[in-house]
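Quick one: structure for this chain?
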Amino acid sequence: MRFIKYFSLLAVVLSSLNGCAEVPAPGGGPGTALSPAQMDRVGKRIWQNECGGTVAGLTSWNGGEDFASLGIGHFIWYPQGHSGSFAESFPPLLAFLTAKGIPTPSWARGGCPWPTKAVFEADKNGERQQELRALLSRTVRQQTEFIMARMEAALPKMLSLSKRAADVRWAFDGLKQTPEGTFCLIDYVNFKGEGTSSKERYRGEGWGLLQVLEGMPKSKTVWQMSADFAEAAKRVLSRRVGNAPPERKEQRWLAGWHNRCDGYKRSL
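Got it. Here's what it folds into:
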């Protein structure tokens, strides 16, 4: 894909961003083959999944969370001086856009300026959030490329951490042979992460892309793999909810998460 050619430069940019999601250079392997029209459909489906497909949803702060969620992928942005158990992804997105020559607000090159959800919501129609929504609504293709790059970059680390590396590689490469399988990988890595962070665990068990790939059966054909991925993802997410601390009340989200996974069975 054409975004790969400047990915080494992007990795250098991201290395200076402390506390952000690591985005290493891709480790080889077959490239993702999506047409421009399919890429646009991927971006729209991710936007629909995360934001209801609305411009207003491009700047959000979900209840019970201590960070803003921005863009079609609801990229995480912690307030200045804060960090959490989830990898921060909005600063790397801005670095990605900057590497592509797209101007980004100078005031956004740091921590999230809104310290709490209440302050964020009170400024929903303020100049800065309007500026962000304008930027994010016109860069859907680039945000999709960023998520695709994150998916490609996750493979080497997943393989290095997995005790079932051969099975993970088989599932990853097989899914990439169809547009629908590719969408599974792209959307899930944005949805629940790579599964490689030791912080993203409940009772020692993760819920990211790595865990789903490890839980996939040996599909008979590549066309069956999207449905098998969807069912494996539902099992992983159900396990997450079962392991979650009671105070997080994650059961309330499970039906929506399963519905999103069922969408992986549809044609792209």
